Amino acid sequence: MASVKTRLIFRAAVDVFSERGFEKATMDEIAAKARVAKGTIYYHFKSKEELFVFLVEQGTELLHENVLSHLTEEMDAQEKIREIIRAQLAFFTAYRDFCIIILRETWGDEARHREFRRMLVHYVHSIRQVIEQGIEEQVFSVENAEIAAWSLFGSTSITALHHLFADKTVDLVALAPAMQEIALGGLHAKEIT
């Protein structure tokens, strides 16, 4: 983000969009929350929709950086998948309001959904590469790494959203072990020994 004012607008927009939803939020509320003139917002963004797209773009970049920065070359594919799940849940805990915005608002409007999906492609592609690594290491047996990557992102995100709506204080990272077990072990019955 380029300027201090843009950062103030970003934070205020996250607060207002998460509290009121995209349709009910107004540029006046965002300006008041950011403590800037409404004209300042319009100087940076032509419309509420453009501001929303900026917010989602910045947020998905943060997601990408925060989650993937935890992966190392030394990790095998299973360790990377465990870390992706844990770090994504940690991100959604740290950026709770942003999580609610992107997961609630982007599914409601087709244009917003397409834009959000376009922004997520880079992140999900990184997950796909980890899954392909696991296929090469012969620890994953999926046939379609892209579907697996989108499924991993989607299941982790929707589970996070469900718990964030149910309890604002929930520690999403505590859900990581169960989600890692499902992601890496599937829903197969355990063998009786």
TrEMBL record:
Residues 3-63 form the HTH tetR-type domain. Coiled coil: none annotated. Residues 26-45 bind DNA. InterPro entries: DNA-bd_HTH_TetR-type_CS, Homeodomain-like_sf, HTH-type_TetR-like_transc_reg, HTH_TetR, KstR2_TetR_C, Tet_transcr_reg_TetR-rel_C_sf. One of its GO terms (biological process) is negative regulation of DNA-templated transcription. One of its GO terms (molecular function) is transcription cis-regulatory region binding. Keywords: DNA-binding, Transcription, Transcription regulation. This is HTH tetR-type domain-containing protein. It comes from Ferroacidibacillus organovorans.
